[in-house]
Structure formats: C-alpha cells, structure tokens
Amino acid sequence: MATATQPQPPEVLEQRPKPIAPPSRRSRRRLGPLLGLTAGAVVFLFPFYYMVIGALQREPNSDLSGAFPNPANLTLRNFTDINAAINLARTLVNSGIFTGGVLLATLVLGLLAGYALARLEFRGRGMVFNALLLILIVPFQLLMIPLYVMIVRNYGLGDNYLGMILPFAVNATAVFIFRQFFLQLPRELFESARLDGASELQILTRIAIPLAKPAILTAVILTFIGPWNEFLWPFLVTKQLALQPLAVALANFISTVAARQANPFGAILAGAVVLAVPAVVLFLAFQRHFVASNLGSGVKG
Description:
Largest sheet: none
Structural class: mainly alpha
Helix content: 55-70%
Oligomer: single chain
Order of helices and strands: HHHHHHHHHHHHHHH
Strand content: under 5%
Distance between the termini: 76 Å
C-alpha cells in the first residue's frame, strides 16, 4: 500500500540548490554592443599609444612592430631634443595665452549674445540668429584672406597676441549653446527679477550665469580644442619665433630642423605628445560633467 509523501519543512526546501538559470536573452544582446565598443576603443586609442611609444624610443621604428618595443630601447632623450630645438616651455606659454584669450572672449561675448538672443526682445533678433547659423557653415579658410588684410595690414596686429585672438573671439557655436540653454530656463524667473527692479546685466550675472554652469563647461571644452591645436592662422600672423604657439613651432621644427636630429621621428612624436597632453587632461578632468551636460541639455524640446 502506497504511503502519501510527507511535506518537507521549509528549512529543507531552502537548502536545495537552485537550478542555474541560462543567460537571458537581454544579457546576450548586451554582450554584442559591449564587444563592439571595446573594439572601437582599442582602435581609437591605438594611435595615441603608438605616439607615446614612438616618443620614448631611442632608435626609430616606424613599423607596426614598433608598438611593442624592447624596454632597453626606451628613453626620454627625444623630449630633451625637442625642448632644445623649440623651447617647449615658451611655446606652451604662447599656446596658453592664445587659448586663454580665446576662451575668455568666447565666454564673455557668448554669454552676452546668447542671453540677448534668448531673453531680450528687439527688432531683427530672428535675422541675427539666422546669420549666426549661417556663420556655422562658412569655412574659416574663406575668411582668412580678408581677416589677414584687416588685422595685419589695417590694424597692425601682426606678431601680436591680440592679432591671433581676435578672429576667434566670437564663437558661433558657444553663442548657440548659451542661447538654447537660456531658452530652457523659466520665463517667470526673469520676469520676477525685472519686477524687483533688477537690470538686464544684474539678471545675467546673478541669475542666468550661475544656472548656466553646465553650458559654460560644455562651451569651454568645445572651444579649447580649436585654438590649442590651431596652426594656420597663428602661422600667418606670427613671424617671431618667441610668439609662436606650440603647434606652429612644431610644424616649423618638422620642416627645418627635424632632418638634423639623431632621431627626428621620435622628436616629432615627443612634441606631439606634449601638445596632446593638456587637451587629454582637460577632457579627463571634466569628462563626468561633460557627459552629464552634453549639448542636448541646452536644446529645447
């Protein structure tokens, strides 16, 4: 006679091993994009890795095998050679003055213009904004000759920091970012400040700018790369070696002095490393803020 199965106590049921669930379909779907992003990151970072390794090699090796050099072939001699040829400290100061002046002008003029286009009512505002968008699609090379005639010949600003900065003082992209960000802010915030008797400049400095920190950070990061790596315009307006930014000095080194170096390949890569380090450090320092306040944060809609 069959006996009925006795129910197991809860403690026994909890001790039974749970079956291993097969990987979900969602996990498999995530694995493919992750592998693709990893491969893309490797491909993207390999030139930077190759640049650093090439700058540290005592004997030049331009083959692919040079990416995995013998540790005995690594040295810092290339950095001392490029420093002796173009004075890295002086050229870095020139690049910092040029880039800092452009950033300062971009923030001051960009905030003023962006606030005016977003919150002030005046005749022709739409036409000014359309002209701003048109400037974004005009290549800088088309304006280079008239700018050179105006700044160097008419204003006499050749071999001058101000002559390098002026063409980049107004950044249409930064103005667009600030305008879109200020449009996103509540209108009541500005109207209540006006009712309290605040002027437009006070509203901008005490209300709008403190709230615009994400847009300011985005504009700074996007603006920094342009003047820091700019070569053509500083090359045209500066003839004195003492005023040339690092990008111009490095290009002159490649065309005139590099052939006389013991390892010109390594010296050029060493200069490229010095040029790239500040931009990489700036991006890494503000990456979290930049991702959190991307360009879309200032676009209404």
